[in-house]
């Protein structure tokens, strides 16, 4: 596990680099450990996560963002109100989940095995 903690704020990111799970199992793992997949509320948090991922560019990791039908939600249930997550995944009946690799966010099938933040 790689940890990034900001000196200026109260949040910590944990990149589970030695553990790969599908999105739902990653969410369950986080919740069993009293947390959740990462939710990014502002540009500062997004930039700090990009810094963490840039130092570990070989890891594509789940974040808490997912799409069911036509709505985006964070793992904790919060609605997404930021266009930073565009383009949206192609319309499909399957849920799609967001991953991050360096500073690039992509949409993947939620059943794939990935590291997670």
From TrEMBL:
SUPFAM superfamilies recorded: C-type lectin-like
Residue stretches making up the C-type lectin domain: 13-117
Record InterPro entries: C-type_lectin-like, C-type_lectin-like/link_sf, CTDL_fold
PROSITE patterns: C_TYPE_LECTIN_2 (PS50041)
Transmembrane portions of the chain: none
Signal peptide: none
PANTHER family linked: C-TYPE LECTIN DOMAIN FAMILY 20 MEMBER A-RELATED (PTHR45784:SF5)
Protein name: C-type lectin domain-containing protein
Classification of source organism: Eukaryota, Metazoa, Chordata, Craniata, Vertebrata
């Amino acid at each position: 596990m790689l940890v990034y903690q900001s000196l200026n704020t109260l949040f910590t990111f944990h990149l589970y680099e030695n553990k790969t799970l599908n999105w739902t199992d990653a969410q369950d793992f986080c919740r069993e450990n009293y947390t959740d997949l990462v939710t990014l509320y502002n540009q500062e948090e997004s930039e700090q996560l990009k810094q963490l991922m840039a130092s570990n560019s070989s890891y594509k990791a789940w974040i808490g963002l997912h799409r069911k039908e036509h709505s985006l939600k964070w793992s904790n249930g919060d609605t997404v109100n930021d266009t930073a997550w565009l383009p949206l995944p192609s319309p499909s009946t399957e849920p799609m989940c967001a991953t991050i690799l360096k500073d690039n966010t992509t949409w993947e099938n939620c059943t794939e095995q990935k590291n997670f933040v």
